[in-house]
Amino acid sequence: MVRVEGLTMTYRVPVRAGGLGAALASVVRRRYRDVHAVREIGFDIGPGEVVGFIGPNGAGKTTTMKMLAGLLHPTAGHVDVLGYTPWQRRTPFLKQIALIRGSQPVGGSQELTVLDALDYQRLLYDVPRGDFTVSLAGLTDLLELDPLLDRQLRALSLGEKMRVGLALALLYRPRLLFLDEPTLGLDVSATATIRRFLAAHAEQTGATILLTSHYMADVQSLCRRLMLIDDGRIQYDGSLHELSARLSPFKLIRVHAPGADISFGDIVERSEGTWVLRVPREDVARVTAHLLSTVDVADLAVEEPALENVIDRVYREGVS
Ligand SMILES: Nc1ncnc2c1ncn2[C@@H]1O[C@H](COP(=O)(O)OP(=O)(O)OP(=O)(O)O)[C@@H](O)[C@H]1O
């Protein structure tokens, strides 16, 4: 579906020194500096894969997405998306992909009503009327669009805009979705709605998805594969589970045992009959068995450390 080799993007940005003299001098002789946003990255994405693309601010995620979606011409490298070179922007390519950005979920005239915008999208993407009716009914149902259809785009809240943005993008049934921070700025319930919708969509349609998000819960709930980019380079490409096991060799055992007194192991949390023990992965079975045989346990759960903590460590220290 997607094949990327040696993809590189270097922005050339004008350098301006402060002060009037320097400003005047820069009119005559402009100076530039290079910003290496993406440096020779390569990866493949197969049909039906849902891949989380994460990295700290300024790592090169949006730049990569824009190149894959055909909005930016790279400085160097090869990209094949569905058999097309994205930046040639051929119509059959554009009809099979969608780029949805949380920072700007709905483009175009904000004066249109939601229904008019959907109808305009139908014309733009040449969606047959029968398909349009079926897709619209499905999307209206799943994204709870009914109360929004006659509202103007400019009057929608951010969460409503995102729901409409998804409907606009999915109306023509693209096979490949680029989702750039789809839950950006949304409240807890709007975030949950979008996550649920995306998970169901991926499962029902087998769509291929590349998703960026700073919310690890988005990535955790939707993606099995994770690509980590930092300073324009791919630092990790593999399963979420493997990354977390590699970087955090511990698990947490949460024990609820009212009336007991647990005083062994590495206790990281303790409150009213509940203890959380940090245990090396290879010792989990042994410690669990020991707890169950020596303490009157009411409840016990083995948990992975929070992904946020694992990722924070990667951003600070890299993947070793
Ligand atoms: N149009 C542009 N002109 C010059 N530099 C740019 C431009 N767009 C992005 N950059 C720079 O390229 C680098 C990568 O930016 P990019 O937006 O791809 O990062 P990102 O990983 O999406 O970050 P964030 O998580 O903050 O959205 C940054 O240093 C950014 O300042």
Overview of this structure, please?
- The chain is α/β, with parallel strands linked by helices.
- It has 11 helices and 13 strands.
- The strands form 3 sheets. Strands 5-6-7-3-8-9 form a 6-stranded mixed β-sheet, with helices on both faces. It has a 4-stranded antiparallel β-sheet with strand order 11-12-10-13. A 3-stranded antiparallel β-sheet has the order 2-1-4.
- The chain is globular, with a radius of gyration of 24 Å.
- The model has no long low-confidence stretch (mean pLDDT 90).
- Bound molecules: adenosine-5'-triphosphate.
- Residues 22-256 form the ABC transporter domain.
- Keywords: Antibiotic resistance, ATP-binding, Nucleotide-binding, Transport.
- It is a peripheral membrane protein.
- This is ABC transporter.
